[in-house]
Amino acid sequence: RRLAFLLLMLAPLWLSGCVTFERAPAPLSCDAQLVGRWVPLLDTAEGNASLTPDDYVLVDPQCKASLSRSKASDRSALTTELDARGFTLEGQSYLALADSDVSRLFTRSLPDGQQPPAMLKDRQPTQAVVLARYRIEGDIFSLAMIDFETVATLVNKKRLVANTTDQFNYTFTGDDAYLRKVLRDHPELFKEETDKPMRLKRAPLEPAPLEPTP
Fold this sequence. Notes:
alpha+beta, nine-stranded antiparallel β-sheet, three-stranded mixed β-sheet, 5 helices, 12 strands, 21% helix
């Protein structure tokens, strides 16, 4: 069975809950380093061997990203588009993904017949964004998501203030200065040290042809 790498990418977002920001705390722009075709780097040889030419992310010069994954059931590809613009803050690069895009991407990545997690049910469209911190080193792109449990702990200890409508969702609200302060003062929100971040490798714009099966 093919690995749904997009689902693996987003799993940290939804394992226990979701964290959003009321809006991006800085003007959004397109990072030219993101433009191109990227293929996933998984943690095991077996995982990488399961990928096909249909598993990739393609980012155009306007930072419109097309995320494609193979569908094992019928050997076709499922493609989802989203806006991959972001901003920089004190040397750190962030993507500001529309909450609606992320929810739709996760739901479409689920195997046929599987129900979305509770935190996605009855979710109302908002202008909120899901922030992800990323780094590009050479041809390797790595992305770290915000950890829900870390946010919940900091909020419960009153070290952070966030709104919540249920047990699954936290939203940081306030003026831009406060939202930037959250990012500046709490780099530990992005779970990167204990969990390996999602990684992609830059690839040629056209995938190499598959070798014919004997």
